[in-house]
Amino acid sequence: MELSGRCLCGTVRFRVGGEPRVHYCHCDMCRRATGSAFAVLAWVPSQSVAWINATPTYRRSSPIAQRGFCSSCGSPLSLFYDASPDEVALHVGAFDNPAPLEPRYNYGSRQRLGWVCCGIDLPHHDTEERW
Question: Could you say which of 10, 54, 55, 88 is the most buried, measured as most Cβ atoms within 10 Å of its Cβ?
Fold first, then answer.
């Protein structure tokens, strides 16, 4: 499966091959980074991502991760954990066609906001990190 995506202004574009592993993330780090109640992330092998036109600007968002975003429009695009350099998470909302990227599990479940009801029937995994 080949997928493509971009930031809001189109400055940073990407193509990715393979079958992404998609989940909802409810951790407070993702909430703050996206300005939303949760993030929806698609994990792929790092080497399968081709950045087109420009690469994201990266910022260390915590002692364990860094995030990529468009320096022109600010769109969040990616998440890299230091402990997993062979994979990257891309924000599902940045894909040109996000419809087939259905989340399969929840992460950071203990930090889920009580009024969030999406994916309630999916498996749950927790994280110890809090930001």
Answer: 88
- For the chain, the 3-state helix, strand and coil shares in percent, each to the nearest 5, are 10, 40, 45
Q: How far apart are CA 25 and CA 60, in angstroms?
A: 18
Domains and CATH numbers, the chain: 2-111 (2.170.150.70)
What is residue 128's predicted lDDT score, i.e. its pLDDT? 64
Q: How many residues does the chain have?
A: 131
DSSP state of 34: H
* Lookup: tokens for 4: 């493509």
Helix runs in 35-115, H state only: none
DSSP assignment letter at 110: G
**pTM metric for this prediction:** 0.90
